[in-house]
Amino acid sequence: MACSSCTAGKYLTNAATSVGSFACTDCGAGQYSGVAAATCSNCVAGRYLTNSAIGVEFSACSICAAGKYSGSPASTVCTICPAGKYNADQAMDASLHVSCQLCSPGSYLADNGVDVIRHNSADDCIQCGPGSYSNAEETQMASCEECPDGLNSPAGASFCSSCPPEYNCNDGKTAACDAGTYSNGDTCPGGTDHSPCRQGSYQPDPSQSTCLSCPPGKYQNVDGQDACVDCPSGYFCPERTVIPIACGSAALYCPLNSGIVQAIHEGYYSTGGTEITRHDEAICEAGFACNGGVKFSCGSNGQYADDLGLSGCKAAPAGKKPTANRQSIESCELGTASTGAQDECTPCNGDGQYADELGLSACKTAPAGKTPTANRQSIESCEAGTYFVGGANECSACGPGERSEEGAAGCSTCAVCEPGKYKISDCSSDTPTQCGDCLKGKASMGGEAANCTSCQNGKFSDVERASVCKTAPSGTRPTEGHDDFEPCCSSCEQHMEYNEANNTCVCQESFILDDGKCTCEAGKTFINGKCDSCENGRYKTNNSTLSCDICDTKVIKGALETINGTDKTSAASCACRKGKYQDPRDTRKTPEGSCKNCMDLNFPEGVNCDDTIGLTLETLPLKDGYWRSSINSDNIEVCEVNASCTRDPSAPPKILCAEGHTGPICSVCSKGYNKNAVGVCKLCSSAGVSIGFYALCGVLGTAALYFVLRKIFGKEKLTIANATEQFQTASSDSKHWSKRLKTKAKILTSFYQIVSKLPNTLAVEYPAIYRGFTTAVNSVFNFNAIGLVSVGCILPRSMYSFYGSFLVTTITPIALSLLLLWATALQVRNLDPYAANQLTSSRFGLFYGFTYLIFASTSTMAFTTFLCTTYGDDKTEYLIAGRSIDCNSDFHKKFELLSLVMILVYPIGITTLYSYQLLKHKDAIKDAENRDTNPNIQHIVFLWRDYRPEFWWFEIYECFRRLSFTGMLVFFTPGSAPQLCFAIILALASSLMYAYNQPFEKSEENALVQISTVSIFLTLLAGIMITLKDKLVEEYDDKFGVLLVIVNTLVFAMIGVSVLFKPIFKFVAKFNQRHIHDAPLKSMGPEVAYSVDLFIDYFKRLIESDTNEAGWKPLDVKDWGGKKKKVKEWLEATGAKADWRCADGNGPIDQARIKCVVDADVETMLSEIESIQSRHELSAGSFLYVINKGKGWRQIYRAIKLPWPLSQRDMVYTEHMQREQNGDVLICSRSSKELSDSTNALSVKFGRMRADMTVAGYRLRDVGGGKTEIVCIIDVDLGGSFAIGYLHRHMAQSYLKGVVDMHRKFAEKSKREGGVSEPPPPLPFLPKVLAAATNPMLSGLRNTDSSVDDGLNIEMGRMIKKKASKSDGDENNIVVL
Transmembrane: is it a keyword of this entry (predicted)? Predict the structure, then answer.
């Protein structure tokens, strides 16, 4: 029998009537099936099927119509959407009919599944009216709810909002507030009603949300008012006043409508009202003063008030008194005086007092010979025969034998007669001695002589009042009356004498015969009866016996000398004294000028005035190193280079410069000359090249040779591509050797760019050897190619002048940058994006490095264009950088415009570029863990790689620092005190900045930059000494220059030391004493280093090992050092046994161990050690900082201060403590690599070298009898100079001895006192700090309550607190000291 398939709408089931028979059964409602179906399927949600007979396929399930939905499978009918919902889909998408959509907020749909037509569109949702709302949470969109009282809403609102200001809301309605009331929904209860404005406020308009405060000058003390009331007089009303406030005091007043009190003006007083309600003010009248609003009269002590509005009475000045009404003052009358502040003038009644003028401040005292009149208003002279010496009111009479003239201050003894006179009568008290004159032919010596004596015996007297008679000259005789003389035989004329041999008259000696008469020749005058040369400072141009003319009044004012060797016959003989010179320009008093003091010159030390008489302005001799604009100028200037102003002494005065020099201060080379390294113009045939040229050639030649050899013989042929790749590799690798050199090169470049500019910028005459050094340095580090060779002998002047240098310096970098950009653009065309990005980053690195190199030189050049000054009397403004250039020329003005552009490009542009890049990427740069691999900041790696992450901004500061030293200083007057002071301040600030921040990643670089800043400071200090003409500098000029060169090369020397330091110590270490053994227990492997359990097991094994297991070598007496006898005695007394070894089995000693027994139990020793470990400060500069701790462990940062000149050390280690089952206590430590890496920046900041603790610690064991055996092991690498085996071994010896002594002392003191012991004195020599620093057992050397340096706490907490807080230890695991 053939099988039949079930038709659609049925499914196959076992027939219940017979075995093995099957039947087709109808699908249920909401189900469907196809032909030969074994089961029926449900219609999905969103579809329905009313009868399975018609549902043969899935398509038979119908989609619900619009307005309906079916929410479950096998639905036989669709349901009309409920209230608040609709379905707009027209039976197109079943998924949209699984449910109905809610009406949008602010609308509703009231029909609840009754009328499908009301649910088939969104338009069926009706918008809520004003004052009502709907939303799904509260209304389910079936209806709109009315807003509660105090709230309202617009049409279509989904929620109600506060009643709007100015209105009240009730029953869904909104009404405006009345005048005098307000509503804002917040202050009114629910916004349901308006409220009256309170006292102090008002509201004139209706529908307002707030009340207005009563303005100043108004008040309101009633609620609900639409206006405020005027503030009454005598009161004031601030804003929102309820009750007017009384003005307060007499010093205040309040007019009508006062909002504030008014202070009474100075010189006014208050009026009206009571004392506290004044409402007006009035000006103070004359005779009164007003202060604090109160008027008072001027009544005593000479007080008066002569004007209106005075705040205080005036005091009558000296010589004055107030009038009766106190409104003015008047002068004291004659005979009175006043010292001031007096009501009446004081009469001059004292001895000898009088007042002969009105308004005297003090009485006068009658002078000697005068007495006051009776009314004391004048004085009168004492009569003859009386005298007055002062201090009395009457004249005193002269005594016997004394006399006085009228008005005499004292009496005198009667005088004797003078020589040439004789006494006629004696004197009386009022009459002098009467004397008579001797007549010609007589003479008298005066005195008491009663008559004159007649001349006799060849003598004569030809004048009256002669004291002695004269002897007649040879060949003459007295006349008969002895009143003259006459020739014996013949009469000779004046100045002649009779010559008996010739029987003629001849001129006397020193006279010449001129026109028949004897006279003095020119240059001589008649003095003491003969002709003699004119006195110094005089001259005479003719033959005569007249006096010589005075140079000071006739020729040169101040000329008190005549030139030696001249005959004084003309005005040309007049000369100025030594130390002075003749200035012919000053003809105000004399025609040939005047003598001026050389010390009054602006640079008196620049002239030689002290040794020569008769110097003139033209012949004024300048010293070497000084210059003036012409021989007619007295304005002296200091030359920039001493040798340029060294003149040949035989050269004429008009030669102002040394050979080959010209221009202002001789700083311009003549044609055919060129400046050498020290700025001296030399003939082109001898100028040569500078040291910098040879240095640069050497560097470039070495680099060229390297690249040529690499290209020919290198394993990897050098090409542009792989050279770029290698450069990029070096830039991205922070440990690459080029990185170390690059940082040092940056510091070196910055330092020498600053130093090389100082001599010219400061205009200081540094020693020649130092100037030569800075010139060479400037040529190399400022890339001054023109300064490397004698370009003045090769190129036209226009090319090597300032303008040529300016163009080369400023345009070349731009051209090279564009060339680099062009070359990069060509190369990236054919590269994939990654390679192109790598190449671009490396080229940006080149670009930033290039901008760093040229920043200082280009900025200085741009600023220098504006630095001009005048020299001497030349009014032309010359460019300081090129003194042949007139700054006011049109050509230079064009260059100043170009300089402004270059200032925008270089100092401003480069600084802005750096700032923009660093600010943009600062977060990435500060990410210390990822910044070296972050591709987004590799193109600016040059700007941040040298600095620690937190100093991402430091290159910006460096720009400003370099710019200040090289550019900003040019705006001060060169060599002036402000410029030097500003430079010194900059140097000090820079030094402090670097010392405090330690911005570089490596301590050696921080030290390097600090040395450079100190060198700059010392160079500036030397400049001040030179400017002040310090004797030390002048006496040791060359040595001083050498010293400056040494100071400036310290930076370069330090770089050499830092580069060679490690190779030198590696080389020295090869000669260290070696320890060789083949014992099985050697140094820890990597598996031990990273496991705490294995580390502790290794430490235990090392503690208990012997020579066979670990290769220990016992220390004998000679190994301990020092005196053998004392060492032997110490070993016997302590019973200590020590040994050491090389942990690797072949190398220098690096591990040491010592064993001793102390007389104290384990617990006592453990408590002693723990008490020490609780101390934070170990010694000055040495301390520990507990970073983290947990059960049986802690992490420690330890700083170690070493003696100078060793670098300070620090280390970070983890300390473990474990108590064994047998009672042993183990305390062992080792360096923590993770924390060591995270705290490296701390080492750099404080200038410390990181030490490495491989293993250190000790074991305490009870050996019975209350005694403890202590075994201590130390293996710490201090690095640096400790690579020298001798130092390391010496440290170990002293340390081991210190361990034993310390614990023996602890034990003895603990046993004796039962308390915590003090540690012993510090160990001698170097290990006294190393002993405490390299082992946790010696955590303190002295008991101290001092805390760790606050700066360290802050720095440490900031750097490692985050890491430490992640530990699995105790919750309170951060120890802040």
Answer: yes
Q: Supply the pLDDT for residue 833.
A: 80
pLDDT digits over 989-1003, tens only?
888 888 888 888 777
Residue-level pLDDT at 1054: 63
pLDDT tens digits for 1308-1335? 877 776 544 444 333 333 333 333 333 3
Q: Are 970 and 864 in contact (CB under 8 A)?
A: yes
Q: Is the Cβ–Cβ distance between 1356 and 1197 less than 8 Å?
A: yes
Report the C-alpha gap between 687 and 697 in whole angstroms.
Answer: 18
d(CA 201, CA 184): 16
Residue 1146 confidence (pLDDT) above 60: yes
CB atoms within 10 A of CB 377: 16
**Cα 1114 vs. chain centroid, distance in angstroms?**
60
**DSSP strand E in 837-936: where?**
868-871, 874-879, 882-886
810 and 902 in contact (C-beta within 8 Å)?
yes
What residues form DSSP beta bridges with 330? 321
DSSP secondary structure string for all residues of 1236-1302: HHHTHHHHHHTTEEEPEEEEEEEEEEEEETTEEEEEEEEEEE--GGGGSHHHHHHHHHHHHHHHHHH
Do residues 683 and 673 lie in contact, with contact meaning Cβ atoms separated by under 8 Å? yes
Return the SS3 of 1168.
Answer: helix
Rounded mean pLDDT, 1204-1226: 83
Of 1105, 1058, 1079, 859, residue with least CA distance to 970: 859
The answer to whether the beta carbons of residues 1224 and 1165 sit under 8 Å apart is: no
Q: How many CB atoms lie within 10 A of CB 604?
A: 13
Residues in the chain: 1377
Structure tokens at 965: 């030293």
How far is 201 from 179, CA to CA, in rounded Å? 12
Tens digits of residue pLDDT in 1230-1261? 888 767 666 776 676 666 778 888 889 889 99
- Identity of residue 287: G
The CA–CA distances, whole Å, from 424 to 421, 446, 479 equal: 9, 11, 28
State both tokens at 430: 């009022």
Q: How far is CA 916 from the centre of its chain?
A: 24
Strand partners, 1147: 1075
β-strand partners of 1076: 1146
What lies within 8 Å, CB to CB, of 1202 at 6+ separation is 1208, 1209, 1326, 1329, 1330
Q: Could you report how far apart the first and last alpha carbons of the chain are, in Å? A: 102
Token pair 């000369």: residue: 575
- Local structure of 986: helix, strand or coil: helix
Residue 1293 in this model has a pLDDT that exceeds 80 = no
Task: Give dist(CA 1092, CA 641) in Å, integer.
Answer: 72
CA angle 48–50–52, rounded 5-degree value? 105
Question: Of 129-143, 1029-1043, 1109-1123, where does mean pLDDT reach its minimum?
Answer: 1029-1043
Residue 162: phi, psi to the nearest 5?
A: -60, 150
- The three-class DSSP label of residue 853 is helix
C-beta separation of 46 from 98 below 8 A: yes
Per-residue pLDDT tens digits for 494-530: 888 877 666 678 888 899 988 888 999 999 999 888 9
Of 1283 and 561, the one with more pLDDT: 561
DSSP letters for 103-126? PPTTEE----SS-GGGGSSGGGSE
Q: Are 1016 and 755 in contact (CB under 8 A)?
A: yes
- Per-residue pLDDT at 1354: 40
CA–CA dist 1297, 34 (Å, integer): 103
- State both tokens at 672: 């055919």
DSSP conformation letters of 564-605: TT--S-SGGGEEPPTTEEEETT--SSSTT-EEEEGGGSSSGG
H-helix or E-strand containing 505?
A: strand 504-507
Would the pLDDT of 674 be above 90? no
